[in-house]
Amino acid sequence: MNLLISNDDGIFALGIRTLANTLAEAGHQVTVVCPDRERSATGHGLTLHDPIRAERVESAFHSSIHAWACSGTPSDCVKLALGALLESPPDLVLSGINHGSNLGTDVLYSGTVSAAMEGVIEGIPGIAFSLTSFSSRTFQPAAEFARSLVQQIEKAPLPQLMLLNVNIPAVSSEQIAGVMVTRQGVRRYFDMFEKRIDPRGKTYYWLAGEVLEDVDESDPDVLSPFGATASRVDLEWISSTMTDVQAIRQNYITVTPLQYNLTSISGLAKLQNWQPIFFK
């Protein structure tokens, strides 16, 4: 397959080298376009008021890989690759392997997920891969799962355009309980700003957030984006499906399908008889 790979940890990150090299060694045509430095938690930001530069990287990757380091955000990287650097569209846009999890509401901030979502916006399926540890440097089990998942999609393409958000537990292959299709959970953070003084006596603030609790969504939005109600069997299956937050605790690899349409269909239905008032 023709694969475009990006990330938010930067061109020198071990995660992207492990992912790209593993897939190239499996016989796929791999192109890497990623930030020239770490751009974590940049969300879906785009560079609009500064030039974007891209330089070829001749080392660090498998000899068959074409790689660029880009001065922009993860979304910039994918947009630039699709619009200027690639001769033809890829079959898949991959992102990662991120150093740290992207579970639940993390996906709203994640540059890793946003890079893969940029492909979906352009009509190309995407997969975001994250290793659920900031300290572990053992990316090979995650890369091997990525290889098998890409092979599976090559044989049986995804049934519709979507992004698969994949989180891999930072444990040995023997300790992984299996693979589970999950729904997006909720992670709440206790955000705390530390007030500090720099050497010149000026005040600055450092964001130091911690996970306060993991919250399950007990009432998922079960209507389709087109307004059709799912069948009772589908509703029962969706409501009983574990969230990514729950499943990762049990050492499952989680695969969560995402979309860029954030419309709350159930909210839209509940507001059908509500008329906002315009005050002049």
Pick out its properties.
280 residues; alpha/beta; Stationary-phase Survival Protein Sure Homolog, Chain: A; 7 helices; globular
The top-level CATH class is: Alpha Beta
Tell me the structural class: alpha/beta
Strand order of the largest sheet: 3-4-2-1-5-6-7-13-8
The residue-averaged pLDDT reads 89
- Our count of domains comes out at 1
Helix tally equals: 7
Q: Separation of termini?
A: 57 Å
Task: Please give the share of residues in helix.
Answer: 25-40%
The CATH homologous superfamily is called Survival protein SurE-like phosphatase/nucleotidase
Q: What Rg, in angstroms, do the CA atoms define? A: 20 Å
Walkthrough of the structure:
There is one protein chain. The chain contains seven helices and 13 strands. It is of the alpha/beta class and 280 residues long. It has one domain (2-184, 233-269): Survival protein SurE-like phosphatase/nucleotidase (Stationary-phase Survival Protein Sure Homolog, Chain: A, 3-Layer(aba) Sandwich). The strands form three sheets. Strands 3-4-2-1-5-6-7-13-8 form a nine-stranded mixed β-sheet, sandwiched between helices. A two-stranded antiparallel sheet has the order 9-12. Strand 5 (92-99), helix 3 (111-121) and strand 6 (126-131) form a beta-alpha-beta unit. Helix 2 (74-85) runs parallel beside helix 3 (111-121). The chain is globular. It starts with a strand and ends in a 10-residue tail after the last helix.
